[in-house]
Amino acid sequence: MTNFEDLEIWQLARHLTGQIYQLTRNGNFAKDYSLCNQIQRASVSVMSNIAEGYERGGNQEFIQYLAIAKGSCGEVRCQLYIALDQKYIDKTEADNLLDQHRKLSIMIYKFMEHLKGSRFKGAKYKAPKPDPELVEFEALLQSYLKK
């Protein structure tokens, strides 16, 4: 992977954010500005935190941002229940979105666990390229010590 757009969890979060925006444009849901705004912001938070965590370059920070994304995913599910209770969406539509958000939450969790067990600590922890002058000096020093 070379960028966050390659991550399956980010791609799914993006897809679900599009669905949330589409859903909140309609009927009484669109008129409930507070809930509409909150569910949109929570949905955007999921994909944004995945992206920001990735771009930080270290696994520990990435895991922290993934935890925030997972929390926001739960927030979206909670708000979908509110929308269902207020009859802004029907049960079939709610169940579909709830299931997809549960799937995303599980995927984020499994990815966090993968990162926790990984020996690779992130791009910002890669060893720097050796300085050519230092390499030459060390070679000279080693040859001198062998004499």
UniProtKB/TrEMBL annotation:
- CDD domains to which the protein is assigned, alphabetical: 23S_rRNA_IVP_like
Q: What InterPro entries does this protein map onto?
A: 23S_rRNA-intervening_sequence, 23S_rRNA_IVS_sf
Pfam families reported in the protein's UniProt record: 23S_rRNA_IVP
Which Gene3D superfamilies does the UniProt entry name for this protein? Answer: 23S rRNA-intervening sequence
Entry's SUPFAM superfamilies?
A: IVS-encoded protein-like
NCBIfam families per UniProt: four helix bundle protein
**Name of protein:** Four helix bundle protein
Q: Which organism is it from?
A: Desulfoprunum benzoelyticum
